[in-house]
Design goal:
The structure is a homodimer.
Chain A: H1 2-17, E1 21-25, H2 33-43, E2 47-53, E3 72-75, E4 82-86, H3 90-101, E5 108-115, H4 122-125, H5 127-137, E6 142-147, H6 157-173, E7 179-185, E8 195-198, E9 205-208, E10 211-214, E11 220-223, E12 226-229, H7 238-243, E13 246-253, H8 262-266
Parallel strand pairs in A: 1-2, 1-5, 2-4, 5-6, 6-7, 8-13
Antiparallel strand pairs in A: 3-4, 7-13, 9-12, 10-11
Helix pairs in contact in A: 2-6, 3-5
Amino acid sequence: MPHLKHMTIHTKTKSIINKPLILVTNDDGITSTGIKALVDAMKEIGKVVVVAPDSPQSGMGHAITLDDPLRIEPVRIFEDVDSYQCSGTPVDCVKLAVNKILKRKPDLCVSGINHGSNSSINILYSGTMSAAMEASIEGIKAIGFSYLNYSFDADFSVPKKFAKQIASKVLANGLPTNTLLNVNIPDLNHKHIKGIKVCRQSIAKYEEDYNERLDPRGRKYYWLTGKFVNNDPGEDTDEWALKNGFVSVVPVQFDLTAHHAIARINSFWK
Amino acid sequence: MPHLKHMTIHTKTKSIINKPLILVTNDDGITSTGIKALVDAMKEIGKVVVVAPDSPQSGMGHAITLDDPLRIEPVRIFEDVDSYQCSGTPVDCVKLAVNKILKRKPDLCVSGINHGSNSSINILYSGTMSAAMEASIEGIKAIGFSYLNYSFDADFSVPKKFAKQIASKVLANGLPTNTLLNVNIPDLNHKHIKGIKVCRQSIAKYEEDYNERLDPRGRKYYWLTGKFVNNDPGEDTDEWALKNGFVSVVPVQFDLTAHHAIARINSFWK
């Protein structure tokens, strides 16, 4: 089979010459410390292009910009890396990158490293994870990284190491179809991290407590505050892993069907 | 067992005297035709309270407002119905309703009726569905309704009938834990609708085609446009149901774990 043999050789040569193309984005904005750490980690394993929001977009979930025009500006912010800032949401960034900026489909899209946790139910509110999910919808291998340290000047050396390690594994092994990864890294020294644990999303929720105030004109307004409450006792969850010193890796899908519930709902009309 | 017997009688009496409390919200904004139709339908089966965005919030996904104060204003817009408009996203509306406005947890939260489809992957971008999902996270039975007609002056009499019918079924039968419903109604006369079909979410995607323009100062900007492409051949999907004249009902969950992928991802570290 000379044709097949030729193809194999060709692919091998290509993978040596051409580094994998890695799209980096986030939701904290292109100037955040977390995305800088992720760019540095990805430069060691591929050719990096950055397309990230020009301002913080935390809590944007899977929002897209429908009623406003979008802007993209090239910026010089990371050494030797093509970088663009975008006026839209994290999901807009991925859509624009794939459709307007990149010359070919990237081999991997990584989002983060988020300043703060995106474990459990936080995945739904997280622009970081929605950007990764959008890439997965586009058929691109995708990972969202989050570090359980919210401070501006957090030391990202530990999460950076895990980002490189996990991204390398995904580039080498691929991911199941329509599946992305939600990776959370605990705020611990490297020697205190017990390892990587593949888990399920913990079923937790927020107990909101809106902070009520009066503006200078005497009118009420509210700030969202709240407490994250995990009542899921499972030892196979991301919350358990993080509390017990592991990096949590949750495989995530964008098919939201509750397949197990179809029969029950069907019985409503029987 | 006199105690149990007493409780049964008590519950029965209560359900006759107290109508179910139904929270109505949407993402098209409190002045839309679709929410008016939903309020009218729910008034026939329960006590309705409306908490909805003060402006259109389409495409907001599961966004929440973290960095801006939130406003709530009572409004007189629906006859005999307590109504509030909120400056936030659809998810903010549900959180504020449950935590600041309603005196008790509602028996049902309905969102919509959305002007346009929220079938398949649209669920991820949809503020309508995210509002319903937020209610489900709060432990409230929840349904999102969408009508496959985008026009401002669409006739909502058909979707209104189905909203009433499906909401009544859910009030009577309950829903499995952590499950909500995504209901889409085709743009057809009632006599042409073949029935209600419980289905799975179709695995489809958008093929974006950003519209590139120049502003008066000669700088580029983009409008998001695109084509919805369904390559999922399944006859058990919402897309199939809608194309074939059925109302689609997809049971939805907010556990995004790709449980089937855990073993494969685990093998990366073996």
